[in-house]
Protein 1
Amino acid sequence: IVILNLKELVDKYPNEEFTKKIFDEFSEHLSFFLIELATLKSPDCIIIGGNIAKASSFFMESLETKLHQKLGYKLPLLLSVLGENSAIIGAASLFYHLNH
């Protein structure tokens, strides 16, 4: 099987075991990154945005569980309502705050 992108994976193979394994591995790696971030910055919550948020039903529960187990507390994970625009708005906001 050749899968070109995430959209194709979730659209064509949503219930396959390999899809579950891919998202389990994704949530494991993302949890390590987010734990580092949470340790350094102590955020009140983490917002998941961009195109990956469209596939949140495949990984959010696993990610929340992994974070809770590794951090020892529940760090709220939220989905961005801005979708793909969230990254560019965040970058523009950072640029603005660094220059004002």
Protein 2
Amino acid sequence: MGYGGAEKNIETLLKHFASDSKLFLVLLEPVIQYDIPPHVQIVPLHNAITRRHLVGFILFLPFLVYRYLKFCRQNQIRTSYSLLNKANLLNAVAYRWNNSIRFIVSEHCPYTDLFSQLPPITRWLKERILRFINSNAHCTQVVSNGIAHELREVYHCKNPMELIYNPIDEHRIRQQAGIEENFLFDSSLRYWIHVGNFHPYKNHRLLVDAFARMKEEQDRLLLIGSGSMQEDIKKRVNELGLNQQVLFLGQQKNPYYYIARSFCLVLTSELEGLSNVILEALCLGKPVLSTDCPYGPREIMLPGSAPETSENIIQTPVGFLVPNKNSSKLSDAMIQMAKWSEISTFQKNALLRAEDFMVSKIAGKYQSLFSNSNP
């Protein structure tokens, strides 16, 4: 359970399930970056961290399935819920061996754009694994209508799908936002913030280039996260002469302190299943400026709209959606946001929209999904 949106969802849910529930957290990799409540029993299935390569994992999979089914039998497990690709594959194969357990897989990611960046053979393999997973589960839980649409229309997955949005722990977020961190905000400056690891699909370069186009000396850009692309982005910041304006804050256990004191959250992802950080920003009453990428940002910021993308800047109740991978449009939208005369309307609407994702509402839907014992 390294840092990631899907993992954070599990932490949030586990903390809101009853302490007398019989809950097991089965890990394929012995990494836990989040706080797991004491009533949840942690079970390391195997140290699969040495088998990161997909083919190696597949070859090792029968052994893992055997161990997992043995564990399920010994503990009288009735429902097995998995998230992330390797765990979903394990769940799907386990179903083929024992369909008396209700196997549920969770899909948090839009795949079409992601797969398009892979070599043809790798893409072919991953597409077939995706179809296998979602054909060998009693149910697929999706975090957005867009993902469900893609699974059905592009990958022809026919199994039942249950839409349950990501939950946010509003009390914890707001409480932590009030805890002082070792960073002093200057009231004379305007702060934009991006929270997300430095992975290629997060497209930090787009954000840095758009920020440079603004040419606003009193603006600061806060980047929270770590990852493989961080050094490349630092070099780009240096090339643009923005070392004093773009601040790399690293991984932060309490990003809410920074979000709450920033002017606006900016998200530049090329794809997002739903985006926890948008939900967290709304919970803190912050306007959001996001790329109109598949699928999550649009579903959050412009509910009820079709899962499509636009080539124009779109005003939403909580901020702006901008064309994907377009730095000039992003810069224009940032300038527009900075000059927006009714920013308080965005802030009020943000708090209202956040209510739809509060864990007190979402946890019950997960409990209903898990308690359905019909295989």
Protein 3
Amino acid sequence: MAKIEGFRALRFTKSAGAIDALVCPPYDVISENQRYALLERAAHNIVRLELPRDGEDPYREAAKILINWQNDGILACDGQPGLYICEEEFANDGVIMRINGMIARVGLEEQSSGVILPHEETLSKAKTDRLNLMKATGCNFSQIYSLYMDDGSTRDSVTKILARQPDVAFEGGDGV
């Protein structure tokens, strides 16, 4: 079984603005037109860090923006490590669907162990881009989606947490 643990998330503060104007879709589905629209929507939209394009070295520019946003109180680290429970809701052919999940740190494993299986179609350019961004900023701005199997206790805990009022709720521009 994969080893998971909490981490101290870097999150927008209230001074950043309305959360629905600050979020963006995953980097690999954002067109240049959509990126520009997100930048126009809010000065602190995460797309500035998630998909940097500015300056001679966009990754270094993203690192500078990250530091500035932290210094300005736009982003702050949680005081304690946590597991972040999330629920996505969307309509599929008129039927409301929900995907529940958890954002956590996952321990690295040797591929041969079979504990964590590789993605079947990763692209070298995308991997290089994400690695360069991570090296420059020390951050992963969007999680890697994966499936996690256990004895059911994790699912039970997630379900109980999702029954409570969420700490943060928003609707993305895509209706999710």
Protein 4
Amino acid sequence: MIEPATQNDLSAFFESLTQAPRSALLLDYDGTLAPFQVDRDKASPYPGVTAALQEILSTTRTQVFIVTGRKTDDIVSLLGVYPYPVIWGLHGAQRRNPNGAVEMACVDEDLVQGLMEADGWLQAQSLRQWAEFKPGSIAVHWRGRSEKEAADIRRQVLLGWSRIAQRRNVELLEFDGGIELRAAGPDKGDAVREILQQLDPGTPVAYLGDDKTDERAFLALEGRGVRVLVRPEWRETAADIWIKPPDELLDFLGKWQQASQYKQPRATSTHKVTIK
């Protein structure tokens, strides 16, 4: 939760938003803006989050970025806001611009071979039904399984895929409820660093995330912005602040909207004021 001293720092940060000509809000999706779902296609945002983000997009000087492990198209269909924010998908390997153009990091031959081997191994172990196939990666999910089943699947996948990772230029990336085999880079930290390069040095920035994969983003933002851990339970983190969804998340987004909204020009009074 937010300690009093940290609350003071956060208040000062929101005050800086009122004066800044531009700000940047970087957001993870699953576990941060939306509760985890066994059926990933049904992972809609927490009630009120879409409306809060729509207000920020429509009425403030903030540029919104989504930084997620999902494909960018997933976010467009789930988030439900317009205009679309810039979306960094696949942990930074894919970027969707507001005009709909999608850029993808190059997939080298070593990764292609590693993914083929990983898929073949899943089939041989009868684990393919738990897999999600993305451009440039394969993720195995065990969310919704019993604790023992999840531990067994994790142990089995690590055993088989670790051998592939040793032979190929790929990495095993663990996240809450699963593990992914992907290229060794880029990652969420790389996405954050590229976003920061596009901003003026004095631009207020915040990153909100929940997962182990968001730690790379938190580290990339160190000394440059506010890092917010969003999850029901505390865990060790590089973030500066911990808030619980959905209520504290909605409160944070509401304060952001109020602090960074477009200023209305002051009306010029034509009435003469008499001072007695």
